[in-house]
Every structure is written in C-alpha cells, then in structure tokens.
Amino acid sequence: MTIFLFYLFSGILVISSVLVITSKNPIHSVLFLILCFFNSSILFLFLNAEFLAMILLIVYVGAVAVLFLFVVMMLDIKVSQARKNLLNYLPLGLFVSFVIFFEFIVIIKNSKIVPFVAKNKNMENNLVDNTHLLGNILYTDFFLLFQLSGIILLVAMVGAILLTLRKRKGVKKQNIYNQIFRE
Amino acid sequence: MDIPITYYLYLSTSIFTIGLVGIFLNRKNLIILLMSIELIFLSSNINFVAFSHLYQDLVGQIFVFFVLTITAAEAAVGLAIIVIFFRIKDSIHIDDIDSLKE
Amino acid sequence: MAFIVIFLPLFSFFFCILFSKVLSSKLLSILSTIFISISAFLSFFLLKNIVITNKNLSIFIFKWLGSGELLTNWTITIDFLSAIMISMVTLISFLVQFYSIGYMKNDKSVAKFFSYLSLFTFFMIFLVSSGNLLQLYFGWEGVGLCSYLLIGFWYHKNVAREAALKAFIVNRIGDLFLVLGIILIYLTFNSINFNEIFLNIENVSNQSVKFFNLEFNIITIICLFLLLGAMGKSAQLGLHTWLPDAMEGPTPVSALIHAATMVTAGVFLICKMSIFFNYSVVASNIVIFIGALTAIFAATVAITQNDIKRIIAYSTCSQLGYMFIAAGLSLYNVAIFHLITHAFFKALLFLGAGSVIHSLHNEKDIKKMGGLWKKIPLTYILMLIGSLSLSGIPFFSGYFSKEIIINSSLTSNLILSNFVYALSIFVALLTSIYSFRLIIFVFHGKAGETSRKFPNIKENSITMIFPMIILSLFAIGAGYFFKDFFVSENFVSLWINSNVIIDLNKIPHHNFFSFHSIFLTTLIFFGILFSFYIFLYNKNTVNFLISHFHKLYVFFKNKWYFDALYENLFVKNLFKLGNNLWVLIDNGIIDKLGPNGLANITKKISRLLASFQTGYIYHYAFSLIIGMALLMTMILFFL
Predict the structure, then answer these.
(1) pLDDT (tens digit per residue) in C449-471
(2) Please, which residues 26-85 of chain B have a Cβ atom closer than 8 Å to chain A?
(3) Domain-located, residue A33
(4) DSSP 8-state assignment for residue A114
(5) What is residue C504's DSSP assignment?
(6) Contact partners of B by the rule of 3+ C-beta pairs under 8 A?
(7) Most CB within 10 Å of its CB: which of B87, C220, C452, C591?
(8) The predicted structure's pLDDT at residue B17
C-alpha cells in the first residue's frame, strides 16, 4: 500500500516538475511548483519528518511560492512569444543533463548503501514526536547556527527591501522626522 | 512496510535533472530559472530527509531546515533583483540580460 | 658598544629617509650629525678598549648564508686594525657631516644627502669590521653604491650622471676580480672566514694551479685577484680613471669618500690579507710596481691640471700609490699609518677646496682664481697646513708616514728597491710642486677672473670652518702623536693579533738628521720654493718649460691618454657592440618572440576568450553545469 502511494505521489511530483519548466505561462509554472511542494511534503510524511513537511508547506507554499506568484503577476509579463532560437541549446542541455543523470544512477547503483537499516526501537516507539526531537537539538546543539540563519533571513529581507525601495516624486508620503519636529 | 532508500535517491536525481534541463530549456524569463533552482534545492532536501530517516539521525533534518532558510533568502533577494531589473529594462526576458558583457 | 657604533649610522640613514618629509632638512642634518658624532665618540672608546685589553671583539649578529660547507655569519669582528679604521671613518664622517650642514645648506635634498652619507658610513664600518670575506664584499659593494649615489647626487647635471656611471662601472671591473679572489679562496680553503683561512694558509702555500698549461702558485693567483679588486677601489693605475671624474659630486663627498675612506678600502684589503701577500713575493712586487707607477703617473698629471678638485684627486691617487708601495714592501702597518694621516690632511684639503669653491660660487678653475688669501684668510691657513702636510714638511703628519715609506724602500732587499726609491723621491718633489702650485694659483698672485667678478668674497660660516680646524689639528699632530701606534714595539702584539704582518726591523730607525731624511726634506723645500719661483715670480719659466717639453706636457695634460685609450678601445666598441646587440638580439629576437610576441599572442587569445563572454546569464549557467558534468565524469571514471 505504502509503495503504491509512494509511486503515486512521486509520479505526480515528477510530472508536475516537468510541467514547471515546460509550461508557457509562468503562472502555471508557479502553480505546478506549488503542486511539487505539496507532493514532496507528503513524501516527507512517509519519512517520518512531519515537522519539515509542515514547514515546507508553510514556508514554500505559503511564502516563497506566493512570492513568486506575486512577482509574476505584478510584473505583467506577456505570455512569452516564441522566439526563434528557443530550442538552440536544448540538445546540448539534454545531453549534459542526462550525462549527469546517468552518472548519478551509476553512483547510486554502485553504492553500498543498505536500503534498510535496522530500526532503532527506542526511536520508533518513542512517544516524543518528531517536532519535539527536532526542537531539542535545534535549540541546543545547533543554537548558534539557528541564530545565524535568522540573521541571514534578516539580511535577505533588508536587502530585498533596499533593492526594491524607490522614491517616487509626486507621491504623498509621511515623513516622520518632519512630523515630530513640526512647530 | 518501508520504501527502499534508493527509490528516494532515484526520485531526487530525476528532479535534479529536471531542474538542470529547466535551466537549459528556459528561454522565457528569469522567474522560471529561479524556479528551476528551487527544484534542485527540493531534490537535495528529499535526499537529506531520506538519509535522515535511513540512519535515524535528526541532523539531516536540521540541515534541511537550514537549506530552507537559505532558499527563502535566495528567493527573496532574487525576486527583488528581478523586480528592479524589470523596472529598468521593462523586461525580464532572459535574452535581454546581457549587460554583464560591458 | 660596537653594536651602537655600527648601527647608529644605519639608523641615521633610515631616520633621514623616513622623516625627510616630516622634519625640516636643517633639523635632520643636525640630528644625523649628532648620531654620527655619538658613533665617533664611542668608537674611540672601542679603540681604547682594544689597545688596553689587546683582545679582539667578536659579536655574532645572525646567520647569513649556509650552503653546503659555506657558512657565513653576520658578525662584527673588531681587532686593532678595524678599530683604527672605524675611529678614523667615524671621525671624518662626523666632521664631513658637520661641514655639510653649512655646505649643503641651500640644496634641495639635504635629507637625502645626509642619509646617503650615513649609509656610506655604515657600509664602510661594516667593511672594516667584517669577520669574513663575504661580509667584507657586502660592505665593499655598499660603499661603491653609496659612492655612485653621491657622485651622481646632482643628477640633473649630465656630467655628474656620467661620472657616477663611470665610477660604478670601473669599480665593477675591480669588484669582479675581488669576487673571483673570494671564490678562489673558498675553493682552496673551504672557508671564507678570516680566522680559518689564516690558520690554514701554511698548508696550501705550496699548492699550485694549472692555467694555460702554466703552473701558478695558488696564493699568488689569489693575491693578484685581490690586488686587482683593491686597484679598482683604490684607483690605481689602469682602473684610476673614475676617481678624477668622481669630483663632480659634492665636495664633502669627495672629502669623505674619495679621499679619506672608500678609496683606502683597497689598501685596507691588502693589509687585511697581508698574510697572503707575505707568502707571495711575486704579488708583493707587483703591488709595489703598481703603486710606484700610480704615484708617478698621478703626480705628473696633477701638475698640469687646472680643476682644483681634480688636482687634489690626482694627489689622492698618488698618495694611494705610496700606500701600495708600503704594502708591497710588507710594511702593512706603515701603509695604514699613511692611510690615516692621509685621510686627515686630504679631507682637510678637500674641505678647504670646497670652502674656496663655495666662496667663489662654484668656480673650480684655479686659473680664474687668485689673490684670495686676504679675503678668506682662515681657509688659506688651513689649506696651507693641508698642503704642507701633504708635501711632507717635517713635523707635519704627512712627513712621518711618507718618510718611513720612502726610506724603507731604500733599505728593502727587493729587486725594485732602487727604482722605487728614486720614483718615490721624485714623486715627493712633484707633490710639493703641484700642491703649492694649487696654493699659489688660488691664493696668491693677481686676482683672477672669477675673483674679480665677485667683489665681496667672504669667509664661510663657522660650521664649515670648525671641522677644518679640527682636521688641521690632526693634519699637524697625527703623525707625531700616533706614530707609536704604528711603528713602536709596544704595539706589535696588537698588530699581530689583528693578523697583520709586522716586521719592525724593516723600518729604518727614524732620525731627523740622517742623510736620507735631510735629503728628502731639502728636496721638498726645494720643490716648494721652485713652485713659488716659477708660478709666482717668473712665469716665463713655465712657458719656457712647456714649449721645450711640449710633447711631455701634452702627454701629462691628457692624463697619459688613459681616458682616450679607454674611450677608443673599450667604450666606443662596447657602445657599438651594445647597439648591435640591441638591434639584432634584443629587438630582433628577444622582443619579437618574447615580450612583444607574447603580448600579441595574449591579445589574440584574449580576443578569442572575450567572445565567450557573451554577457548572457544562461551562458554562464551552462558553463557552470557543463563544468560540473565534466568534474563528475572525471571523478567517476578516471579516479
């Protein structure tokens, strides 16, 4: 049963990711990307990673993908007219990509990974859930890295705001400084 | 009832390759390019989680956590760049982005 | 203490260079002089310590080179010989720097001048205090460099630049031989430390080398190489041409470098290696021969010159010839004696000449001077003292050292002794003639062209006169008071400790009333009177002499045609060769294939590469991915 579900979701995942890159309309692409994230979060659930599955949904679908969608819509991109040299690089791209793909396959085939590891019974029967465990180590062992990633997000936010901020003339705007020091 | 790790690896390899092909194939606009990169990140995340499950080691999931952070930051900054690029050039068609040459 | 003596000048050099923009040049020059004065002051204590304790001082600084068996350390090794030299060098450096405060007052780059002088002092001390030949060579090159920099100090003058270049190149010829000598010493002794080679000399004194199927004694060969090196530095006949030209530099430089210190480095080298020369009769004879020839050559040329500084320069050459004679006669202590006394009176003469030149607004031609003694009486008296000392009037310092050399040459049992005696007597006569010719032309007679042009010629400031007074005291008294250091039995052990061969038996007992002394003195007095007669009272005699010995006069006037010979033989041909090499090899082959060729190829390749830089972002992404694929393939299949 599980294997069937795995095939189902991973099939949808692959197909939708192909559609992400092939669809003409960028809005469709974003929507398919959202589908991808949904499917992969379901796959994460198979792997007992509930917290990450939820995070993926919240962060990716809720924030990143919506951001994509927002930008795509805001920018008013014309549905791309087919340019002549559209597929010039495709043969090369396909070739390189498949070389890499087959090399990955070779690596995976030749690797000596044991497909199943004897389960740690303690872990399995643990009443503590995944989120709890993750929190336990995230706020202890990886505390500094956690803080750092927060800083990275802050910097990214500041950068994004700074990049897109512009002063337009003729727009009525509140100037707090002047307001405070008004006579 | 468990799914062998290799299945996940094949899956993530496929998505990775699709992402790569997307970079090559995409001649339309930069946003698709960013999405291809998101796909590549996703494939790596699947790998991490799969191995984390295999070895019952939560550090893999922690890693995914940080990758998500970086991806979010990258997407935000990348999209901001695209927005101002559009503002300047009035297009984000990938063929119009050649000012690196100068 | 020795450490301070040596490194204070170096410190002063860096100080002057670093603060040349910050502090005023006047302050810098005074500070530099103070540094040197401290160094000079301490060096006397150093000398005193050495004399009292009779122990050589050796300070290890750090390891310099270690390559195979060649181990070289930076050391300060001070024995009696070095201590004397250091005291003399620092004292004269101090006086010259003191003098330069006044002399260079109006120059633009005073700080640079003082820094070079300090650097020179450092190198000179380093040279004389070295414990091995390589360090000596370092100092040797260092003083050469400073000499080059200081001769060309007024580099906007074409003549000065050429003179600097000439000095450097001619010195280089000598230095080459010095290097060969050092290499040969290393090959023979497996060491270049003085102590070790002097210890082992007994073992190798009979070794010989084959060269062109002829056998030569190895020591003789080494000595000849060293001699050639010394000849370059000490401006001996053949390699002397740079010294007169070097007078284009500022006069204090001439006084310090080209009279008192650097040019005597050659004599110092021969004395330092006296043990070697003692083993080789051939080399010693050649030293005497060279010295005698130089002495007569320079003296004859000096008589015919008109440039005040050049006359003194040729006189330096001639006196160096005396020192070589002394060294060749194995009277190394006497050579050093003459070196010291000569340093004082020659520095005095140069500074006096500088004072005259300064008063006359850079006039150097003695024919245009005249009648100056009333206007600058102090300079006149000081120059007179210098000239008397140079001529060798009794009780002046020059007399003692010169008299010993001349009389010793008579008593030595060398083949050349009579020839050398005759020559040196003759040179002594010529010396008195030319030095008083200079005095007469400059200070006596009618006022010359330039003297008339500047009616208000004044005596120079005290900063310039004071060092000259000190020097004049030394020029008067050094011979009498320092005589014991060099020729007394009380100090023999000191000389032996400094590895200098000393044999007091060769030196005839000094007696003012011996026949030879009286003969010499009379001759010198005669020379002085003669020059007064012909140059001041009866000028027709000069014309008569010139017309009768016209060919000889022209020969002397043209400096024995050495410069012309070198010009035609070497310089022009070298220029031609250089030009051909430049056109054919440099431009034709090396540049075409080398820089230009490479540049062209680079240009082409970069054009090609630039076409890859399309500016399209996806092209970069492609290359990134392709690179990744290649890397993966490589790792997977080839590693």
Answers:
(1) 776 777 777 777 888 888 889 98
(2) 26-29, 31-32, 34-36, 38-39, 42, 45-46, 49-50, 52-56, 58-59, 61-62, 64-66, 68-77, 79-84
(3) yes
(4) -
(5) G
(6) A, C
(7) C220
(8) 92
